Amino acid sequence: MKNRKLLKRLVNLQNPPRQTQTLKKSSPKMGKRGKQLAKERRQNRLQQISELRKQPIPSHQRWWSSGTVAVVTGSSRGIGFEIARQLAGHGLFVVIAARDADRCRRAAEEIRGEGARNVDWHRLDIEDFGSVEDFVKWVVDKFGGVDVLVNNAGVNYNIGSNNSVELAEKVMAINYFGTKRMIETMIPVMKPSPYGARILNVTSRLGRINGRRNRLGDASLRDQLSRDDCLSEELIDGMITKFLEQVKQGTGPLNEWPQVFTDYSLSKLAVNAYTRLMARILSERPEGQKIYMNCYCPGWVKTAMTNWEGNMTPEEGADTGVWAVLLPDEPVTGKFFAERREISF
Asked: Is residue 69 within 8 Å of residue 147, measured between CB atoms?
């Protein structure tokens, strides 16, 4: 309850009151007019966020220092690069991590070229356990541990109306199992802090359990994933295993799975569920050793993953991720954010 009140207070402080003539929510029956109203609402919201981003963070809310180390995976380009760049701009020490070493180096050089010297880089392939172990060893040797982990690395092989599951196993190996591998391997080296270490997982609203357009068709599974008393790693892994077996046998995707970008959406649903699960487990750690974990959806961003389609720039897409990482020192954990607001899982 305390977390929810804090989050509501933060959002209210950062959002001016709406005008009297509030735009109504759109519905399928509203047609083109409803879509236009929704677009206008969203544009207004993004404009508000743009103005908020220009405002300096008050010194009393800055829990971090130049010695605060933030690792951002998949950060040699796109949203990950923007998250890293913005965090460095706020004064954290940022580690660029991605599969392509040359791109990592160039990304770090670009940030340094903007005047931020607080950046380093190291190759990391989250699909490869050996690469993850080498990376963690390097981080510990160089920095003694990590304060912030942003799991941004991910793939999606579908664009537009395409919904192939031909590479579903690869998608799951990186988006879900790779992210989980990073979390499990990094938790032991996250630094103790009175402010709590932080993990942020970059996911998608396409992975919402009860999403209007893309929800799971299996009502029983939806119910289990929604309930904390049922949620477990075995349940999440079992869902992914069942899906991959159906794909391998040529019987999927079926109606029980998301119908838009099926493999990508399911991988993000799994990460969302895992975020909730781990946030609850990590909240039981003693004071000074707590780790706060949340996830966020950057929106439809113009990057290589979307073939440069989308309606947001990488700078706009990264904003909520940076905002979530830098939330003040009272604990906010197990939440899902988009456009600087909490949304439902």
From this structure: yes
**In this predicted structure, what is the pLDDT of residue 4?**
54
Q: 119: part of which helix (H) or strand (E)?
A: strand 119-123
| Cα separations in angstroms, 113 against 82, 89, 102, 118 | 14, 12, 16, 11
Instruction: Give me 143's structure tokens.
Output: 């920095």
User: Annotated catalytic, 264?
Assistant: yes
CATH number of the domain to which 329 belongs:
3.40.50.720
> What contacts 318, CB < 8 A, 6 or more positions away?
79, 82, 83, 85, 86, 298
Q: Which of 127, 159, 178, 173 is nearest to 305 (CA)?
A: 159
Strand, helix or coil for residue 217: coil
**pLDDT tens-digit readout, 81-100:** 999 999 999 999 999 999 99
Task: Report residue 93 as tokens.
Answer: 């020490």
Structure tokens belonging to residue 53: 């981003």
d(CA 71, CA 139): 9
Among residues 157, 176, 195, 264, the one annotated as catalytic is 264
Which residue matches tokens 């781990």?
278
Q: Assess if residue 46 is contained within a domain.
A: no
CA distance 286 to 303: 40
pTM over 0.85: yes
Contact 329, 10 (CB under 8 A): no
Residue 147 maps to a domain: yes
Structural domain count, the chain? 1
pLDDT tens-digit map of 276-299: 999 999 999 999 999 999 999 999
Name residues of the chain where pLDDT drops below 70: 1-30, 252-254, 308, 311
Per DSSP bridges, beta strands 197-202 and 291-296 are parallel
